[in-house]
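FORM 7B - TANDEM STRUCTURE REPORT

SECTION 1: FIRST PROTEIN
SEQUENCE AND TOKENS:
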Amino acid sequence: MIQNEFQARCATNIFKPILSDFNQIKDDYLNYINKINDPILKYISLYFVKYYIDGYKYYHKSNKVHRDGACGYLRKWLQEKKDLYTFGGKCNINLRLWINHIGTLWYMFEGDKDYLFLEGNVLKTWCKYYNMYDLTRFPSEVNLTNCDKIISHESGSQFTPLTSYDKECDCSEYYIPERSYITDNTQEKDTTKKFAVSSALG
């Protein structure tokens, strides 16, 4: 069985900074995202769902160390967006929206058998949710008084892309397992199709 390895310098080959194809997202997730009124949070939510699905496709059959590496990368990406969207946790309105909507999407994945895998006889998530508390500490000279009065869609720089690396990335070929519905009474099928990932990070 082919097991994909996670390499941080190649991460943007899997978690692409700019996306144009969201066809693999199920209607349940799209319908929920469409209920989010805040345009910035809706944007982040759409990317998060796509990244979670892509992470599952590439890494749910990988060794735990690589699965955890990819999960950690996704968590850090999401925490960066939380820090930006909530202004370091200082915007209480945005913080409540984040906890509600992003938390709900996490729990949807944890209950969706399409994105669980069998480890022994136990169904598990490839990436588990937990709160991260690393937030920016702003200097006292920065005025946060009107933070909750700012309408988020007035911001023109709502989303920063993932960091690119200058070094050439020599990534190995990846194999995308064909998704199958897993139940407690069914065994995983090792049906894979070969997918060569470009080494270009641009």
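SECTION 2: SECOND PROTEIN
SEQUENCE AND TOKENS:
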Amino acid sequence: MIKKILSILSVLSIFSISQLNAADKKIGFIYIGPPGDHGWTYMHDVGRKYMEEKLGDSISTTYIENVPENADAVRSIRKLAQSGHDLIFTTSFNYMDQTLEVAKEFPDVKFEHATGFQRLDNVSTYSARFYEGRSVIGHIAGKMTETNTIGYIVSFPIPEVIRGINAFYLAASKVNPDVKIKIIWVYSWYDPGKEADAANTLINQGADIIVQHTDSYAPCQAAEKAGVLAFGQASNQEAFCPNAHMTAIEDIWGPYYAAKAQAVLDGTWKSEDTWHGFKEGMVEMSPYNENLLPADLIAEAKAMEAAIEDGSFHSFEGPIYNQAGELVVPEGEVADDGMLAGMMFYVQGIDGDIPQ
């Protein structure tokens, strides 16, 4: 009888340990939009699922979607910290202050803030060099436009967005000196209605290519309906606008998320800044649409990808001038990461002012 009781206790003990190990660490995510946006948030969620697949039962994950970049973000981040999450990813630039506020309250919780620049002992920052992809689509757009007018839909005036506009224009104007870009600010990352309206406005102003730094596929669909061309954003959106979608810059977060979660499991996590691009696989291009793009242009785009990856091409190689005609990057030099991270000026040739 005693042996039977001990056997049962042993089984229960093993079961308890098994249950504990089934989710050694809890990982949380704060999303600016819905995973169904098929853009920015969608790709973060793809990354979360990749992490789950790689790490299995050693982690469990939670996400909160559609979190505004205000006091609601503080409450949502704090909710995850209070509920025992060991690692929290906050996946939008304007979560920066809110992430830091909660991180100070929970020094034992690790935080990862996407596209930010302020760190603490328990806060890391990470981003991708999206501007590398902007160079590729700029090259394509400069070659493909017939009206020499390109419409560019943007969210907020932050360095990431300004850097992307500049990289795009520098590449487009290099192959087509007559090209002009028209910019509309929608002051939202995800608002399909506003994004579609902006696309239609730009098309009515003569744009025959639509570019976006917003998260929905509405601009691409508007482009297709109007019979013009477009690029997807953050993920491959060709399924939603196959007759307009030339390619897209894809954000690849999964390997990074898995590595950081593994570091928490191993006890090796540390506060650091990560900024990766084509070379490290954090930025990729969607398949080039062979029904829309000439074979020689696809070859040029792929060659540019390879040149960026091996370092023989840089999106911001001098000479580069700002709108005032001042030399900001001398000939033979490239912009350093400090300039890129804080970029809040337009390069020469772009019309209009950056909103304050």
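SECTION 3: OBSERVATIONS ON SECOND PROTEIN
The mean pLDDT is 94.
The two ends are 79 Å apart (CA to CA).

SECTION 4: SIGNATURE
Preparer initials: ____
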